[in-house]
Design brief:
CATH topology: Jelly Rolls
Order of helices and strands: HEEEEEEEEEEE
Number of helices: 1
Shape: globular
Number of strands: 11
CATH class: Mainly Beta
Oligomer: single chain
Distance between the termini: 46 Å
Largest sheet: 5 strands, antiparallel
Number of domains: 1
Length: 167
């Protein structure tokens, strides 16, 4: 009897944590081992639930103190089911002028939730089917034309879709 109460309690705790994020539609991460190679494309495939509601889209990143830059440049490509593709070059601030990292977290790993689509106007997945998001780092040293071959300090790259609050 005692064991079943223990397991029921554990299940209730896990369910309470899962239910706290009711805006989440899609949330997935992929690890970057050691360093993020300039040619490594992180891809996420998803099938949004509908073609009528608005959503917010985010690139999520986890970084450590090994990340030695104050900003981050990414190339993000959204591929539609019909073959249409939208490619954006994005810049994100990663640290304050004093060098402290932005993002959340109490350890040396900071988690950053970076806007991709939906912040200036509602984003609607207007086609049914599977979408693919490709994310690639596009960092350069100041004054250099060539990209940084191995970007250190990024541990995980993620993509998140949330229900828009304007619905």
């Amino acid at each position: 009897m005692q064991k079943s109460k223990y397991w029921i309690g554990c299940i209730l705790i896990v369910l309470s944590f899962l239910s706290c994020d009711s805006n989440r539609v899609f949330d997935e991460y992929q690890s970057v081992s050691g360093a993020w190679d300039k040619d490594q494309i992180i891809a996420f495939k998803m099938s949004p639930p509908d073609t009528t509601n608005a959503y917010n889209l985010y690139v999520n990143l986890r970084n450590t103190e090994d990340y030695k830059y104050s900003n981050l440049f990414l190339i993000v490509e959204l591929n539609y089911p019909n073959g249409k593709a939208i490619k954006d070059t994005l810049t994100y601030k990663m640290a304050n002028p004093d060098g402290t990292f932005l993002g959340t977290g109490f350890t040396d790993v900071k988690e950053n939730k970076l806007w991709y689509k939906g912040y200036d106007e509602p984003f609607v997945f207007d086609e049914p089917g599977e979408y693919t998001v490709n994310i690639q780092q596009a960092m350069r040293e100041n004054g250099s034309i060539n990209g940084i071959d191995k970007l250190e300090g990024i541990t995980d790259v993620g993509f998140r879709i949330e229900h828009s609050q304007t619905n």
